[in-house]
Design the sequence.
């Protein structure tokens, strides 16, 4: 169905903002960031919005640190309520014209939820991608109230990468991040400098992409009021306006040069598939991806033919070549991913027609690049990038503990669906309860559920220094970006499955299903691993009808950490679980 909404805001009129940089070495590694309420203008023609921000800005300052130079950061909570976001569940999924309510501004008949409004400003900060001791990792229940001290020590003993810091409060991360509590964090190292990659503006710029929605006044004019709106069919908020570094659909004047863009999807739920589009056709060949979540790939890769897919929290380090373009040339970054995202393909050639109301994608544009008259500076792209990691060998994985986790959506009548991660354990032969069976060729493994909710007892105790293999089994209809705190991992395989969930097979705790390796006849996905996923990742997409296997080795810090879906509405309800990393010498003392 081709229905197009008129654009309530003029695109490409605000210059792409560059968040202020906070260079840790210039401050002797000691930084203070105030977390406070503030005001922010998301678009030239919008009134100011109330926000919560690090240093009171959206996004927060970009913190830059050097590898192996620790950073001590005082997160000074100066927040006060009310939460600057109106939260609502619209009574219907579509409006009187049949337009999905999530594709339009305003509350769509929903009543403001009083509980989020009453949030007074407890927070806890997580540095996503950081190899951080557990005490400073931002455990979702270890909150600090306004005025309470939080001084976190970040060792920075890790390779150069784009990280990000954001609020991680149990149950309300989706509101706090949406209110503005997110910022970028870049670690630099010698290897990157040897490669002479651009560092800092104008040729290295971060692109933090987030979707946002706003309220309407009595005359149907946009106010700046942030709105987090869901509906009875879709429990995730997919907002119609895409912001980059805090502006809706900005424009960047570029020199005829090679730029380095550090891209992060910081949206609550939306997955982007980014296509760089010229006058008539995609120009993806201008983009070379050199890094992913945890920094440089071994060699540069092209982005996939359909475009660069980034789910919530995924990052990409891109070199984009504008050097052959005439002044006045324009390129538009478009998003072709419908929401909720399920991995479905969309040809890049059609990206300018990607608007899809039913796919909650009313406005595909993300931002525009406009070439200006200037000196031409093209950069050579190095052939070899990272040299400090390899894929784990089969020998290294032979004896590795294997962990299986089923991603499950439980439908509820009178409340939004519950999403959980069911931790599985091989069932004893005499087990009589509900089972999940996984059949691969001749072999069937019988699993029972041992944990379903965040507060269930911990079952994962990885030993420091040892490889583990984690299997993520998606039994839902959507793609889930699964994020592990602490060390990065590498993807081993992505395989198609077909499955059957027994009648009433999903209850509050147990799970009864049978899974078979192999493609479902109705399954359109190719279940391929993209080249850009063969690096060090901390967030991996698990598509419907798919098992993803990854190898992870926790190396340095013992303690209690979390892994979770990075769709914030899922993480908050209840797609998050703890794990406890243990030093080998303490293992014998585990009861
Ligand atoms: Cu999820």
Sequence:
């Amino acid at each position: 169905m081709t229905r197009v909404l008129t654009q309530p805001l003029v695109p490409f009129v605000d210059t792409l903002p560059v968040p202020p940089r906070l260079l840790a070495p210039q401050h002797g590694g000691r930084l203070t960031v105030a977390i406070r309420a503030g005001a922010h203008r998301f678009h030239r023609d919008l009134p100011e919005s109330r926000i919560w921000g690090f240093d009171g800005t959206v996004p927060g300052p970009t913190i830059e640190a050097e590898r192996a130079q620790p950073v001590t950061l005082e997160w000074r909570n100066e927040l006060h309520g009310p939460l600057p976001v109106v939260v609502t569940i619209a009574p219907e999924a579509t409006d009187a014209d049949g337009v999905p309510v999530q594709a339009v501004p305003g509350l769509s008949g929903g009543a403001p939820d009083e509980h989020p409004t009453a949030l007074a400003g407890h927070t806890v900060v997580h540095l996503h991608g950081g190899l951080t001791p557990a005490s400073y990792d931002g455990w979702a229940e270890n909150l600090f109230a306004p005025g309470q001290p939080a001084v976190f020590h970040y060792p920075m003993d890790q390779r150069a990468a784009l990280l990000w810091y954001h609020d991680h409060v149990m149950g309300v991360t989706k509101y706090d991040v949406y209110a503005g509590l997110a910022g970028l964090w870049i670690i630099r190292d010698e290897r990157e400098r040897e490669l002479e990659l651009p560092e800092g503006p104008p040729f290295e710029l971060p692109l933090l992409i987030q979707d946002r929605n706003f309220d309407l006044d009595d005359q149907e004019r946009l106010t700046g009021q942030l709105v987090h709106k869901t509906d009875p069919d879709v429990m995730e908020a997919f907002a119609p306006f895409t912001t980059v570094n805090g502006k809706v659909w900005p424009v960047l004047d570029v020199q005829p040069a090679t730029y380095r863009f550090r891209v992060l999807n910081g949206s609550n739920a939306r997955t982007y598939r980014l296509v760089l589009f010229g006058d008539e056709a995609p120009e993806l060949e201008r983009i070379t991806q050199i890094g992913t979540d945890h920094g440089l790939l071994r060699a540069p890769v092209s982005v996939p033919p359909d475009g660069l897919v980034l789910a919530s929290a995924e990052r990409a380090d891109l070199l984009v070549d504008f050097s052959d373009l005439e002044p006045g040339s324009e390129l538009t970054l478009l998003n072709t991913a419908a929401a909720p995202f399920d991995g479905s393909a969309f040809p890049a050639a059609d990206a300018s027609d990607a608007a899809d109301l039913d796919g909650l994608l009313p406005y595909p544009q993300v931002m525009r690049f406009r070439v200006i008259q200037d000196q031409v500076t093209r950069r050579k792209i190095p052939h070899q990038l990272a040299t400090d990691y390899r894929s784990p060998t089969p020998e290294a994985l032979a004896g590795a503990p294997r962990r299986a986790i089923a991603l499950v959506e439980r439908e509820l009548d009178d409340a939004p669906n519950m999403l959980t991660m069911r931790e599985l354990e091989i069932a004893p032969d005499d087990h009589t309860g509900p089972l999940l069976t996984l059949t691969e060729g001749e072999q069937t493994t019988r699993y029972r559920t041992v944990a379903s909710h965040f507060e269930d007892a911990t079952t994962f105790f990885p030993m420091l220094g040892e490889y583990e293999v984690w299997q993520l089994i998606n039994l839902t209809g959507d793609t889930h970006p699964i994020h592990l705190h602490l060390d990065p991992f590498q993807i081993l395989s992505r395989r198609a499955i077909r499955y059957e969930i027994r009648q009433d097979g999903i209850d509050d705790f147990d799970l009864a299903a049978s899974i078979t390796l192999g493609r479902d006849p109705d399954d359109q996905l190719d279940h391929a691993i993209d080249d850009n996923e063969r690096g060090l990742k901390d967030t991996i997409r698990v598509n419907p009808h798919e098992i993803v296997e990854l190898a992870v080795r926790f190396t340095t810090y013992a303690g209690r950490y979390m892994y979770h879906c990075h769709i914030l509405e899922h993480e908050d309800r209840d797609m998050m679980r703890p794990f406890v990393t243990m030093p080998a010498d303490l293992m014998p003392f585990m009861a």
